[in-house]
Specification:
By secondary structure, this protein is of the alpha+beta class. It folds into three domains: about 70 residues; about 110 residues, Nucleic acid-binding proteins (OB fold (Dihydrolipoamide Acetyltransferase, E2P)), CATH 2.40.50.140; about 60 residues, no CATH class. It is built from seven helices and eight strands; from the N terminus they run αααββββββαββααα. It has a five-stranded mixed beta barrel. A hairpin with a 2-residue loop joins β3 and β4. α1 packs parallel to α3 and α5 packs antiparallel against α6. The longest helix has 23 residues. It is globular and about 65 Å long. The two termini are about 40 Å apart. About 20% of the residues are buried.
Length: about 250
């Protein structure tokens, strides 16, 4: 391999892509990857020829196993409530993604209520709150009422598949909430204290940039430095495009 890092990265990515279409259990994929790892280890110790191919296959199988594990981890009984209006209780497991008119939360569900019945549950939900009154933070316990849905699949080969994209993050359903009181903070979950401290510091620095800079430039700075997304006005976008720097704004679109 003249460029081993490139070859191994491509092999791993290929395994992930194959995992999105292959009909194979995660346990089987892991067993195959483990067997290939042992074969590569024996090859290395014995000094046999042709071991490079074994390593490439190992990275493909590792990507395949990772993909199948992500898809298996996205399974949740919340799928039983698809198309229904429910109330989900859970905690915010990642930094919220704040947009102009909505906020996206990654919520670890603990309980669901529908039709007067409550049920303990597990699974990850992508919560979308339209026109939020207040943005909640990492570790907050939420009670959210909205419509459960499953993202649509592209249906056409080669097009971006939003459903598969979320499933590879362990997310099978979305909860769309809108209206006053649709999302309520009920307490705080014992989340990672170090991560919480880092995210709090990040939010304060971003708020400082927003307070000290014109809105358009504050969005650009926060997008480049902190990865915080936000709308870019047309004039600013055109200026970046004309100077060949439009890629800089991609993080904040």
């Amino acid at each position: 391999m003249n460029r081993p890092l490139v070859v191994l990265t491509v092999s791993y990515a290929a395994g992930i892509l194959i995992g999105g279409f292959a009909v194979i259990k995660a346990s089987t994929a892991l067993a195959l990857a483990a067997f290939c790892f042992l074969a590569a280890l024996v090859w290395y110790v014995r000094g046999w020829r042709g071991g490079r191919l074994v390593i490439v296959v190992l990275f493909v199988l590792t990507g395949l196993a990772a993909s199948r594990l992500w898809l298996a981890g996205s399974e949740t009984a919340l799928l039983d409530y698809e198309g229904r209006r429910v109330t989900v209780t859970g905690w915010v497991a990642a930094e919220p993604d704040v947009r102009e008119d909505r906020v996206f939360y990654l919520v670890k569900a603990r309980e669901v209520s529908a039709g007067g019945e409550r049920r303990e549950i597990s699974g990850t939900v992508r919560l979308v709150e339209k026109d939020p009154e207040q943005v909640r933070g990492y570790g907050d316990m939420l009670r959210a009422t909205g419509l459960i849905s499953r993202p649509a699949s592209s249906g056409n080969p080669g097009l971006f598949d939003y459903r598969t994209y979320l499933e590879r993050q362990g997310i099978k359903v979305t909860l769309f909430c809108r209206g006053r009181g649709a999302v309520e903070r009920t307490g705080e979950y014992s989340a990672n204290p170090l991560l919480k401290a880092v995210l709090t510091l990040k939010q304060r620095l971003a708020a400082g940039a927003a307070a000290g800079l014109p809105p358009a430039w504050a969005r650009i700075v926060n997008g480049i430095v902190f990865g915080i997304q936000g709308p870019i006005d047309r004039d600013t976008r055109r200026a970046f495009s004309e100077t060949g720097l439009v890629h800089v704004t991609q993080a904040v679109l």
